[in-house]
Structures are given as C-alpha cells and as structure tokens.
Write a structure and sequence with these properties.
Blueprint: H1 22-26, H2 35-47, E1 53-55, H3 56-66, H4 72-79, H5 83-91, E2 96-98, H6 99-106, E3 117-119, H7 121-133, H8 137-147, H9 155-160, E4 163-165, H10 166-179, H11 188-199, H12 244-253, H13 265-279, H14 286-296, H15 300-308, H16 312-331
Antiparallel strand pairs: 1-2, 3-4
Protein name: HTH cro/C1-type domain-containing protein
Organism: Streptosporangium lutulentum
Length: about 325
C-alpha cells in the first residue's frame, strides 16, 4: 500500500467493513470515523516520506509478553485490533507491521486482578488429584463453579490450557482444600473417574503433600501414596490403588477379606534384627537366617530381599552386633 499514491475517499459507512484498518478504507470502501482518519494519516505519512511499517520483532515480543497475563480476546478488546491481526503478527513471519498497529499494541497495559492469566499447572494437578480420589468431573465442576460465582466450570479448559485466570485458580485452590479432605461416595461414575485417572497416572493428593503442586518442575512423591487396604501400609506404584501383594491377592481371590499382608520392609528388618540379637542367630548365615524367617512367619526370600534393601550403615551395625553377641557367648 505504500506505493499507492491515490487514496479513494468514500463518504459512506459500509456495513461489515474491516473498520479501523487501512484495508477497510482501500478495499472495503468504508469512510467511517475510524477508517477515514486512518487513511488520511497514511496518506500524509507517505507524502512526508515516513515509513508506514516498523520492525515486527519488538511488536511480536510485546504481544507474547501481554499474552502471559491476558487472553487473545482481552488483548483485542484493549487494542482495538482484530484477533486475526494479532494472531498473524504473533505467529507470522512478516518483517514489518503498520506503525499504527504497533502503536495500538504498545498502548495496551497488562491485566491485573482476577482476570489476570497465570500458569495452569497447579490448577490442572488439583483437578487431576481430585479425580484420582474418585470425584467425578460433574462434582468437581459444579463445586468450582459455585465457588467462582457460576453454575459450573469447564474442566476441559483447565486440563488443556496452559493458563487460567487468577480468579479461577483461587476457586480451584479453595475447592481442592475442601474436597481432598472428604471421601466421595463410590458410585459407578466415581469408579469410572478413578479408573480414568489411574490409566493416566494422575497423582492423588497424598503425592503432593510434600511437594509444591504449583511448581511445574515439582514431581509427585508416590512413596507417600499408600495401599488402600488399610492394614497394609505399603506404597503403591503410579496408577495403582493397591500395592503389588494386595493387588495380586485381590486379582486372584476377588476380595481382600481375611487377607493378612506381610509386614512392610522396615518392620520386617527391625523384627529380624531383634530376634537375631536376642537369640544370637546370624542373619548372614543361611541356616540361622532361615530360623529367623520362620519365627517371623515369612518366606526366607522375602526377608532376604528386605535385608538387601537396607542402607549400608545398617548392615555394618548388624555385623558389629553379631560379633559382639558371639564374643559375649564365647566369654561365658
């Protein structure tokens, strides 16, 4: 357009024209209060030898900065530009942008308050954690909506968008604190929601107890997620409700009624060391270690694996204790 010295000046308002743009004046033939002044300004700049376009790189950087705190529609509303124009500048490869367009972009101020966009990582993880407990999407969306002053919240946006508004994030934090302290009634929909979360390995609330759930670099602590069979107390693998032993028994028998899981590793080692010291049985000698396992009521292989998982310093302590026991026995 910079080489076109003839500017048509229609005097009428054209419905549906791209108002406020040079295209709206030159191609849509609109002469409204937005199009005509812009065309006059462009014509004057051309006569004075001024550049109609400026470098697009700073404008693109400015748009990216603004999009961290505001939506595309908010940016369009404040700048007076169309969403298409902003998107073309943000993701396009053009080297220049009209001076007037650049001025409108730089005139926009970042948003603050509840409408400000923030990272959605924490909000997404909280929704996933509640789902992992068995809360359905309907139950979660209604509670968040009520907290946010609406009927319900679109959880798809929360789970898929990289950013959410601060107001929505605050509502999710409040609902998470409330719902994570309750147990849902496990109907069909709740069981289906929980199964979906397990397939996707979404971490439940206990996994985030010692980690910053809002930090994108943080990772869930699955060691803190315990088997749902209350008398077990073992940790579970990601995406599981029960530990390996309880899960295998449940799969084979269909119920955990009457099942007594073996002791966890730490308790097993502690009891084995107690018997070893009390009765002078060596844990490093197979025959005597077998006797200790029989006293504990566990297979020898189970106790052996538990002992092998001990820290090296504990093994050294056991060796010293065994030597002291042998020496005291010899002294008698």
């Amino acid at each position: 357009m910079a080489g076109n010295t003839t500017v048509r000046k229609p005097r009428t308002y054209v419905e549906g024209a791209r108002h406020g743009t040079l295209t709206g004046y030159t191609e849509d033939l609109c002469g409204c209060e937005k199009c005509l002044p812009l065309a006059t300004k462009v014509q004057k700049m051309y006569r004075l030898g001024l550049k109609l376009k400026v470098d697009a790189a700073p404008v693109r950087r400015r748009i990216n900065e603004l999009r961290r705190t505001m939506s595309l529609q908010d940016l369009a509303n404040q700048s007076g530009l169309t969403r298409v124009t902003i998107t073309k500048i943000q993701y396009g490869k053009q080297a220049g942008v009209l001076r007037g367009t650049a001025e409108k972009i730089f005139a926009v101020t970042p948003m603050n308050g509840k409408n400000m966009l923030i990272d959605a990582t924490g909000s997404r993880r909280r929704v996933q954690a509640l789902t992992a407990m068995g809360w359905t999407s309907d139950e979660i969306s209604v509670r968040i909506g009520q907290q946010n002053g609406s009927t319900r919240t679109n959880l798809t946006d929360v789970l898929n968008n990289p950013r959410v508004t601060r107001g929505l994030a605050d509502s999710i934090i409040a609902v998470y604190a409330e719902m994570s302290a309750q147990k849902p009634l496990m109907g069909f929909g709740n069981r289906r929601a929980k199964a979906r979360a397990q397939r996707r390995k979404w971490a439940p609330p206990p996994a985030w107890g010692g980690a910053n759930i809002d930090d994108p670099a943080a990772r869930p602590d699955w060691e803190a997620v315990l088997c749902e069979f209350v008398v077990c107390g073992r940790s579970v693998r990601p995406g599981r409700s029960h530990c390996g032993q309880c899960g295998k028994w449940l799969e084979e028998h269909g119920t955990l009624d009457g099942y007594v899981p073996s002791r966890n590793g730490e308790a097993l080692v502690e009891n084995a060391r107690f018997i070893s010291r009390a009765e002078g049985l060596s844990l490093s000698e197979e025959t005597e270690a077998t006797l200790v396992a029989e006293r504990l009521g566990v297979p020898m292989l189970t106790m052996k694996r538990a002992l092998e998982r001990r820290p090296q310093k504990d093994r050294n302590t056991d060796t010293q204790a065994e030597l002291l026991a042998e020496l005291s026995g010899a002294a008698k």
